[in-house]
Write the structure tokens for this entry.
Amino acid sequence: MPRPAWLCSRFSLVLVALLMAACGGGGGGGSSSAVVTGSAASAPGSDDNSALVPVPALIPDVAEIEVSRYALWSDELASTPLIVKVRESGSTAPEVAYFDGFIGGSGARLNHALFDDGSHGDEVAGDGIWTLSFTLDLAEPSALRLYDGMVDILPLTIRTSGRERTVEMAVVSRALQGTVNTEPLNASVIVTDALVSMVDATFDGQTLSDVTENLYSLYPDDSFDFLVIFHTRPTGDGVPRSLGVRNAIGGINLGDYDTSAAYGSAGRLQQVIFQNANLTGREVIHELGHRWGAFLDDPALNLSIPTGFHWGVSTHVGQLGNGPFLLADGNGGYLVTNANGSEDFISNAYSSLELYLMGLASPAEVAPLRFVTDPSVDARFGTTLPESSTRVVGIADIVAVYGERLPASTTSPKAFSAAFVVVSDAPLSEAEYTLSTHIARYVGGASDGGVRNGGLFELMDPPSFAAATGFRASLETRLPPAG
Ligand SMILES: [Zn+2]
């Protein structure tokens, strides 16, 4: 049975008939934040596959955090003041913690307490809003690892008594300064060649249609297949999500539906990605993949994990497999583990199976994969399974259950368009709109990405959309003329 369009995950947005795929693994910033919180770099910290993978005891989120900037120029890490605010009812001072983990950095761990006594930038003593005005006091990195060597990431962990949340601070090469021109469209919106920056302090991260309707009032030609929306304050669990808007594709286990009008689109819009406050955007390629997958969860051939629409325990390596990998142990068994890049999905290309679902590969190009499809098999992380608990799934098996992918790759669309939007409480700084524009340009470009080393943390650098498809498809992220 195709999935009805109204099936949603636990996160409810004020929109009708939407389909969402929640994405945990990349949401917290990948390996870098895992290191900061003391877990192994490869810790499978996804909400979505927790039924299969033992994750460290979850530390509840700090609910309300404001950091005054999400991007800084790389040569101002020592000097530019930041303000961190946390609402916290306890009497123990929250703290902000981070490592100097850049290339050339000292590796030092820095902790700073926040204040609720009217000092250090705190506005009202004793009101439960803890504040710290401070500088990071870090030297300029000697090299940057992401987005064509122009961006790096500093995870800031905000801790209160028993709770924490990591916020990514982006560091932007000064070489990008002056490469982005802005044009005001009205009192609250400026645009660049690849970014719409909306100031809207009332946006709560829930009513995405307010944002999209505003966008379509400025760009009424209905020229976007995808919208990628960022918010400078985290909402809810902070995890990026894909919202299905429209589907008429067969063979991917989605029913036909069209909710584009609810977003202000005249029928072209297919998907809205809500990146939440993950402003470095490294999950965007993964989220784009959720337009087409991984919805193959029919009991007759269930290839996905129970929640989140990611590939189940398998030899799959691509963008939508957050989960465990089946590693041949040399004795005829398979170890359920993270291996062969399965945990590095942010930096992977799409797999042949994903390209097939996207309409970018023929059935004959889909490589057979070994899956655990029997729900009675205990495939917990670290288990070694006999071969008989697994099965090889070929494209004929998939087509037999889910039907042919229609339209086929010979006639399916290959050229897509996306608009990138940042919603903020106050106007963006030059470093911020330059970063977000650079990311949008990069996603629409031709870079390959990969795993980046050199500093204290290993970082996943995503490929551009075109590179992730093996240059079988393109994504236009430059905006058309407004109005
Ligand atoms: Zn996902």
